[in-house]
Amino acid sequence: MKILLVNQNKMVEKLFENIAKKLALELVVQEHVEETLSKLQEDPECFFFADDTVVDEEGYQLLAPLLEGAKMSAFVHRKSVAPFGSFTHYIQKPFLPTDVLHILEKTMESLHIPSAPPPQEAPPPQEPVSLEDTSLDANLNQLEELEGLFDTPPAETPQDPPPRRTRSACARRRTPPRRTGP
Question: Could you tell me the CA-to-CA distances from 24 to 1, 17, 20, 95, 119 in Å, in that order?
C-alpha cells in the first residue's frame, strides 16, 4: 500500500516521509497534476493527499474520476483556501503529523490493512551461568596469576651523572680590559 502525495513543499514532503516510514507505507511524491494522473491510473488503490499549492479546482476536475478508486483522499489546504471537491478528508495547514497519522491509522483499520510490520522477535534468552562452573573458576585463577605481573616495580637502571659544565677557553682566561690612553 502506498501514499500518493501531490505536493511541491519540501516541509510537507518531510512530514509525509516520516508518517509513511512509521506506518511502513511507500511514499510517492508528484509535483504536478499531470504526473499524478498516470500514477493514479497505474495504481488507484492508494492513500491520496493533494496540497492546495498544486491542486486547484481545475486540477481536481481532472483527478476526480480517478479518486473514486483511492482508499481515501485528502486535501491539505491553507486557511485562506476554501475546501472544494469531494475529498474524504480536509486537513488545514498548519497541521500536526499526528493528525495525518491518525487519519491513516483509522482508515487502515477500517479497511483491515495492517498498519506496520510485526515487531521482530527478541533473541532467545541466554542460559544463566552457574557460579559453580569450573571453567569460570579456571578463568578467574588465570586472571589472578596475571594480576601479579604488573605489580612488580620496574628494574632500576643506573643513571649517568649529569654532564659537567666546562668553560670555554675564552671564559677561563680572564684578560683585563685594554687600557688606551695615558
Answer: 9, 10, 6, 21, 12
* CA–CA separation, 113 and 105 (whole Å): 9
- The structure's pTM equals 0.62
Question: Would you call 131 exposed, middle or buried from its count of C-beta atoms within 10 A (0-12, 13-18, 19+)?
Answer: exposed
Dump pLDDT digits (tens) for 83-114. Answer: 999 999 999 999 999 999 999 999 999 988 87
Nine cell digits for residue 73: 483522499
pLDDT in tens, 125-145: 555 545 555 565 666 666 566
Cell numbers for 131 = 557460579
- Domains of the chain, by residue range, sit at 2-109
Domain 2-109 grouped into CATH 1.10.357.140:
no
Q: Secondary structure of the chain: what % helix, strand, coil (to 5)?
A: 40, 15, 50
Give the tens place of pLDDT for each residue, 148-157: 555 555 555 5
The bridge status of strand 72-77 relative to strand 47-51 is parallel
Quote the cell numbers at residue 153.
Answer: 616495580
> CB–CB of 3/25 below 8 Å?
yes
